[in-house]
Amino acid sequence: MIEHPIPPTYNKNSKILILGSFPSVKSREYGYFYGHPQNRFWKVVSLIFEDEFPKTKEDKKEFLLKHKIAAWDVIASCDIVGSSDNSITNVKANNLKEIIENSKVEKIFVNGKKAAELYKKYGYVTTNS
Q: By the 8 A CB rule, do 62 and 53 touch?
């Protein structure tokens, strides 16, 4: 069982919540979301917001907060082989209530098929209970 090692990024002004499933091996090693050098997340959001590409973990946190984005994952802990979403079993979901109650989140987006599946299974419960 692997525990999620990265705390959520958000503040009281966050309006959008982006949820992944569980951090990849590279993201866990890096210590922040979308940490693999080939991951396109940071390139895409910097283009969307017409802002500078954030390079460091601190730059990435500041980028998200500046643009009122919260980031976290659906899973708090699980069994996973490498970084394969298809191998995820024994899921314990994160409680999203903390973010929802302490921010202005109006929209929640998931970043992939597994995140969507898990949010549908666990996310509604943790945001509504």
A: no
